Amino acid sequence: MLEISKRYGVSTNTISDWRRKGRIPAHAIDDRNQFLFEDPGPNPPRKHARKVLRSHCMRTAELLVTVGLTIASIGAAAQDSESVALAFERLQSESPTEIKQGSEQLVRLEKSDPKAREYIALHLPPLIDKGPKDYLGRWITLVRLAGELKIAEPAPALANG
Hints:
about 160 residues, mainly alpha, two-stranded antiparallel sheet, about 70% helix
């Protein structure tokens, strides 16, 4: 056993452990716990090989979870952007109910998504700039929305209007 332990650079305890677990073939040659070990061929056992494999599996699992979360996050961001655009479409409706629902949806989205605020700040001022000529109720809702979200970009149009 000493000879084979030196060959693999491990202790005799490791060789005994490998033999008991069947990782290295051995045949008993007497009743004093002596064994004749077979040549394991081109792929001999390595110490800590299972720990390395387990560690590799854990890193792979962590990577897969990270990738999954990233994809989910991208999907959620895309959904939020789509939701903001749909809410803006509602603001341009002729229906007071649709306008109110769009405004409420934008307030909710703005609180949960910083990108929603950027979108609103970019797209709300041109709607307010059009003035109340098309539909006064919608224009008032837009101005209230800008005030509630503290979006200052429409202020010049309101001051000049």
